[in-house]
Amino acid sequence: MSIALPILRPDSADVGQTPPPAPGQARGPGRLIDSHGRTIRDLRLSVTDRCNYRCVYCMDPDFRYMPKRELLSLEEYLTIARVVASLGIRKLRITGGEPTLYQRLDELIAGVGAMGFDDIAMTTNGSLLDRMPLERWRRDGLDRLTLSLDSMRAQRVAEITRTAATPQTVIDAIGLGKAAGFHPIKVNVVVMRGVNDDELADFADFAREHAVELRLIEFMPLDSSKAWSRETVVTADEMLAAIGRRYELVPVESCDPASTSLNFRFADGAPGRIGIIASVSRPFCGACSRLRITADGKVRPCLFSHEEWDVRALLRDGAADEEIRDFLVDSMWTKQAGHGIGSADFTAPARTMSAIGG
Ligand code: SAM
Ligand code: SF4
Q: Residue 56: CB within 6 Å of ligand 2?
């Protein structure tokens, strides 16, 4: 079967990149490596582009979903997971859109849970966790939960998510997750200037009070409203300064060299941790070990890729695992050196965060 390779359109991040190999030529050691010497060990698998929220930094109210027929089937997700496991991927994160809206999530978790990954996590807004079989998921192999909460104030959460959600929604979800044995629980916060940056020290209070790992994320240019600008980004330095006025933080070395966050504990020994994901002000592309596959089966070597590789076509053509493996190896070879947000000619990808999988 012959597969048309996408043409790479060089952008600033690609300058100096080794040209992509001809089909078949990057197939080497049976693992995923790129032309910059990085080994890919981490898959973010999006299982839906649908969501019951419309967060201002992610999805517009009138955001158009992909047609259902374009989304992968359970069997197709499981085939991808099986193939990437055979290529040395050790970590899997299930995401979306809102993954708890995916109807066959239980079967997906049970399926990937039996594939021998070291770590399986899921990112969710937490709103539906009270109707999810959390204990079963834990038994079936889901190791960790990451929740999202962008303000400690009810009115603000409602404005940011454009729903009736409140901080209590996530506090309840934390309790349910802990009771089901998920540890640690992480809570993502997207920090935006003029929206929630006056709450940074309160977020630290929340981490201490609920003994969670708080992940403060710099706003990235992946919102469907295109409201992102450099001025809207609250940098890691600014976040640390704001929290530092209330609490002394001590840096913590991550045991994962590909960790995307700058990690801190509280100097007074209080529970909870702070992690800062400084994708914009301190990119960590050199240590990136990630591959993303969208709910409609597009392989994205980078969040900010302008080119995608269509693995769905292969899957629907009845390709053998071997062909899918070769296709993934070739596609990861093209991973760009960096996202290039810092360069003057940076352009955001057409796909927004909810359609990629965060
Ligand atoms: N719906 C789930 C949730 O919100 O947790 C999972 C998918 S969501 C796309 C994954 C993560 O991406 C969330 O923590 C969200 O806050 C983050 N995110 C979405 N848009 C973002 C943006 N423009 N910049 C930075 N992070 C973003
Ligand atoms: Fe939905 Fe998550 Fe995007 Fe918010 S960040 S709109 S919860 S996908």
A: no
Q: Is the CB of 224 under 6 A from ligand 2?
A: no
Each of the 358 residues of the chain gets a pLDDT tens digit; together they read 333 323 222 233 333 344 444 444 444 556 899 999 999 999 999 999 999 999 999 999 999 999 999 999 999 999 999 999 999 999 999 999 999 999 999 999 999 999 999 999 999 999 999 999 999 999 999 999 999 999 999 999 999 999 999 999 999 999 999 999 999 999 999 999 999 999 999 999 999 999 999 999 999 999 999 999 999 999 999 999 999 999 999 999 876 766 789 999 999 999 999 999 999 998 888 888 999 999 999 999 888 888 899 999 999 999 999 999 999 999 999 888 888 888 878 888 889 999 999 8
In a domain, 2, yes or no: no
Task: Please tell me if the CB atom of residue 219 comes closer than 6 angstroms to any atom of ligand 1.
Answer: yes
CATH number of the domain that 167 lies in? 3.20.20.70
How is residue 56 written in tokens?
């201002």
Give residue 24 CA to ligand 2 midpoint distance, Å: 37
- Tell whether 24 is covered by a domain: no
Residue 8 lies in a domain: no
Domain, as residue range, for 68: 40-356
- Name residue, tokens 């590789």: 309
Query: For the chain, what is the domain count?
Result: 1
Residues for the chain: how many in total?
A: 358
| Tally: H helices and E strands in the chain | 10, 12
353 C-alpha to ligand 1 centroid (Å) = 7
Best probe residue, ligand 2, of 66, 93, 101, 125 (max atoms within 8 Å of C-beta) = 125
* Angle, helix 236-244 to helix 200-210, in steps of 10 degrees: 70
SS3 for 88? coil
Q: What is the pTM of this model?
A: 0.92
Residue type, 285: C
The answer to the question of residue 32 being in a domain is no
Task: Tell me which residue has its CA closest to atom 20 in ligand 1.
Answer: 58
